[in-house]
Design goal:
This protein has nine helices and eleven strands. It has 273 residues and is α/β, with parallel strands linked by helices. It folds into two domains: 111 residues, Alpha-Beta Complex (Quinone Oxidoreductase, Chain A, domain 1); 125 residues, NAD(P)-binding Rossmann-like Domain (Rossmann fold), CATH 3.40.50.720. The strands form three sheets. Strands 6-5-4-7-8-9 form a six-stranded parallel β-sheet, with helices on both faces. It has a three-stranded antiparallel β-sheet with strand order 1-2-3, with no helix packed on it. A two-stranded parallel ribbon has the order 10-11. The chain is globular and about 60 Å long. Pfam families: ADH_zinc_N. This is Quinone oxidoreductase. One of its GO terms (molecular function) is NADPH binding. Keywords: NADP, Oxidoreductase.
Length: 273
């Protein structure tokens, strides 16, 4: 999120001093950046700077993930197994599942984390992977149909365990790699059971149609206004303190988005986050 300093001669939709969220745009970890006008989205009135900072990246990621889930389900309602439900994206997926009546089973690292998620989404099963029988718990909640889709941002050694929980013909959607180490796959089970593994990255969001992108941006703006608690912030760091900010962002138990901020400028008197 930033404040418009100046606009090109042909730009009619933006003005200096206006708050905007920008995506995609390289170089945003800086005091100033030049971006195409069509990638600068006005921040709705009443939305805080802290909420505006993740206003595009997180909701647009949700839109891409939900399309991938719908495609993988092929008209079914689930069940879908989600890892890292306590993450910023994980909470967005859980909230979307409630609205769209999607059968979701959530995984979280710790028992305490599971209790927090149950409080937020009491209708969704939550399982702590620290439990020895966590896979058995997933199978009991999934029932005879099994898990049709796994939504994973953890990766690493756990991926093989997740693939084993898929029903034949199921899909594992990977959109992150929070763990360390490589992500192993056994080729034979993938072939024999006709499993699908696909990746989803927000870096490909610009390949969506103009209409889809406009709908996604409108959704993001509405989400920031109506439910800002879904775009919560873990902490803010000065741009010069980017190293501890990155360390914080990598913490396993982190909840919310870590922000980098720049100090107020003498010219604009505004702070960009």
């Amino acid at each position: 999120m930033g404040v418009v300093e100046s606009v090109g001669a042909d730009v009619r939709t933006l003005r200096p001093g206006q708050r905007v969220a920008v995506f995609p745009a390289p170089g945003t970890w800086s005091d100033f950046v030049v971006v195409p006008a069509d990638r600068a989205v006005p921040v709705p009135a009443g939305v805080s700077d802290e909420t505006a900072a993740p206003m595009l990246v997180n909701p647009l990621t949700l839109c891409m993930l939900y399309r991938a889930i719908e495609k993988a389900l092929r008209g079914q309602t689930g069940p879908v197994l989600q890892t890292a439900v306590g993450s910023s994206i994980g909470r967005l997926v859980s909230a979307a599942a409630v609205r769209h009546d999607l059968q979701l089973i959530n995984l979280v690292r710790s028992t305490s984390g599971a209790e927090k998620v149950r409080t937020l989404y009491p209708s969704q099963p939550v399982i702590a992977t620290c439990d020895d029988d966590w896979q058995g718990q997933v199978r009991r909640h999934a029932g005879e149909r099994g898990v049709h889709v796994v939504l994973d941002c953890v990766g690493g050694a756990m991926t093989q365990d997740l693939a084993e929980l898929l029903a034949d013909g199921g899909t594992l959607i990977s959109y992150g790699h929070l763990s360390s180490g490589t992500t192993p796959f056994e080729a034979l089970p993938l072939m024999v059971r006709e499993l699908t593994v696909r990746g989803v990255s927000i870096l490909h969001w610009m390949s969506r149609t103009p209409r889809e992108r406009a709908e996604d941006v409108a959704f993001a703006q509405d989400l920031a206004q109506s439910t800002p608690d879904l775009l919560d912030v873990a902490d803010s760091y000065d741009l010069a303190d980017f190293k501890p900010a990155i360390e914080h962002a990598r913490r396993p138990a982190k909840s919310g988005t870590v922000l980098l901020t720049t100090p107020q400028t003498a010219d604009s008197g505004n702070e960009a986050a």
